[in-house]
Amino acid sequence: MKIAIAQVKPVKGNIAANIERHERAIHQAISHRTDAIFFPELSITGYEPELAGELATTQNDSRFDSFQQISDTNSITIGLGVPTRNTVGIQISTVVFQPGQPRQAYAKQRLHPDELPYFIPGRTQLIVKVGNCTIAPAICYESLQRDHPLTAHRLGAGIYVASVAKSQTGVANAMAHYPRIAAQFAMPVLMSNCVGSCDNFVSAGQSAIWTSDGKLAGQLDEVSEGLLLVDTDTELVSEERLYQ
Fold it and tell me: CB 3.0-4.6 Å disulfide test: which of 22, 77, 243, 244 passes with 36?
């Protein structure tokens, strides 16, 4: 099967514009017979913690119905970054759409200290099944903590997908950490980062895929929107710029 990660440049706080960008990226991935696609952290709103209170929603927001329709029609799993609200607070979530199934939301379990004034942590790890693959979503800071990929591995994850919003310093840390995780657990690691302004920093792109032995198999640049697609059987990676 084939999995894509998207590197996008979200429009700050503009959910409608970002939905349109996501749909274009998804359809481009579908043209390559992709079975699943994952986007960066808070990709639907941009990584903007100070705006999360007004932008937070739920996985069943009707504005996301088009993603469910695309998933159902094209048999593709879609993972989007969304601030979600529940009865106790706001969470940084990956909302997952799968063909003919209820939507699921995975909430970031380990928050960076800067996020604590705005968000509450999730409690449960989600494992997403796509064909014969088991995928563990991770969200930025937690993916750099050893316990998170360890738990994912113990739960049977075969692929680790980190949706992030990282500056150049964060990317450098990821480039050192993720290959070790991939090799230790014999588990490919996919990092989907955004580009452009985020909160009080510039997100540095360089989305990447590491094979199950920790080798860098493909990487995008630091400024362009694009896709990385990996064949899970061969671990071969291809790269595409996103259509405008």
Answer: 77
- List Cα–Cα distances, 181 to 151, 160, 161, in angstroms: 12, 9, 12
- Residue 211 to residues 49, 158, 182, 234, 236: CA-CA distances in angstroms? 32, 11, 7, 10, 9
Residue 62, classed as helix, strand or coil, is: helix
Counts for the chain of helices (H) and strands (E), in that order: 5, 15
Alpha helices in the chain (DSSP H): 15-30, 52-55, 65-74, 147-154, 168-185
Helix or strand holding residue 2 (H, E):
strand 2-7
Backbone angles phi and psi of 165, in degrees to 5: -135, 95
* Total structural domains within the chain: 1
- The structure tokens listed for 219 are 């990487």
Task: Give every CB contact of residue 76 below 8 A, 6+ residues apart in sequence.
Answer: 26, 29, 30, 34, 35, 36, 37, 70, 99
Return the amino acid letter for 108. K
Distance CA(177)–CA(157), nearest Å, equals 18
Predicted local confidence at residue 64, as pLDDT: 98
Give residue for tokens 């994912």: 152
Helix (H/G/I), strand (E/B), else coil: 238:
strand
Residue 244 reports pLDDT greater than 70: no
Please give the residue range of the domain that contains residue 182: 2-241
Extract the tokens encoding 222.
């630091």
pLDDT per position as a tens digit, 34-77: 999 999 999 999 999 999 999 999 999 999 999 999 999 999 99
